Amino acid sequence: MAAPRSFLWSRRIFLTLLTGFVLLPVYVMVSSSLKPLEDVSGKFQWIPSGLTLRPYFDIWETVPLADYFVNSVVVAGIATVCSVTIAVFAAYAVSRYSFRGKRVFTVTVLSTQMFPGILFLLPLFLIYVNIGNATGIALFGSRGGLILTYLTFSLPFSVWMLIGYFDAVPRDLDEAAKVDGCGPLGALFRVIVPAAVPGIVAVAVYAFMTAWGEVLFASVMTNDTTRTLAVGLQGYATQNDVYWNQVMAASLVVSVPVVAGFLLLQRYLVTGLTAGAVK
């Protein structure tokens, strides 16, 4: 049965308005990044009177954006790899084995998502400072300390998500792998992990995006040499002025890795988000 014409037109109008609402901030960012500072500081003009690429060159000189970029890539990349690796083993154990405290473990992992991150900020700060004073290991103000911090909230979610993905993989595959001579680790890496690739990719994307754009912990747990991009963008605001055109240009540059990664992994991400929903 064909849909009424009124419904089709209503859907087109709604989707057009929704698309415009989504693309409007992007247009403002792009147009502002191509304007001189005096044009951005004044009344906003929908159609720029003059365009320049100078802000895209100045962003690397106003603040050490390249250093912040390297810090973000290192921290987000290592945090993602560690989170996914640990979560794979933990989720496999919970999904395939029965042990004492299994239910308590899963409930505890899920309950960690109920607390806001700011509750852990002061305890982690004190722990890092005390560890540094007692052992000389500088966790506060280092990349390693920030990576451990990100694992505290990305790892529980990763474990919980992968448990659902692994539960969706038929246990008959495990039995077939054992018949072929595989042990538990062989079954995991030869059967379970290949079958759950979309789910693992979805978890990896979540962990990376969370670490890439995190501001609260990065603003406290880093210093001038370990600062990440999310915090480094504040450097374009000085006591005398705010370089709005450079802020917009830097924001677009920072978004490129995340958008590119999402487009490349989109098919895995969409499949992974629904892989554990139906068993």
From TrEMBL:
Domain annotation ABC transmembrane type-1: ranges: 69-265
Species assigned in the record: Streptomyces viridochromogenes
SUPFAM superfamilies, per database record: MetI-like
Family matches, as Gene3D superfamilies: MetI-like
Transmembrane segments: 12-30, 68-92, 104-127, 147-166, 187-209, 243-265
Name this protein carries in UniProt: ABC transporter permease
Compartments where found: Cell membrane
Keywords from the UniProt entry: Cell membrane, Membrane, Transmembrane, Transmembrane helix, Transport
The keyword Membrane belongs to this UniProt entry's keyword annotation: yes
Membrane association type: Multi-pass membrane protein
Pfam families from the UniProt entry: BPD_transp_1
Hydrolase recorded as keyword: no
Family membership: Belongs to the binding-protein-dependent transport system permease family.
Highest taxon, organism lineage: Bacteria
InterPro entries in the record: BP-dep_ABC_trans_perm, MetI-like, MetI-like_sf
GO biological process per UniProt: transmembrane transport
Any one GO CC term of the record: plasma membrane
UniProt-listed PROSITE patterns: ABC_TM1
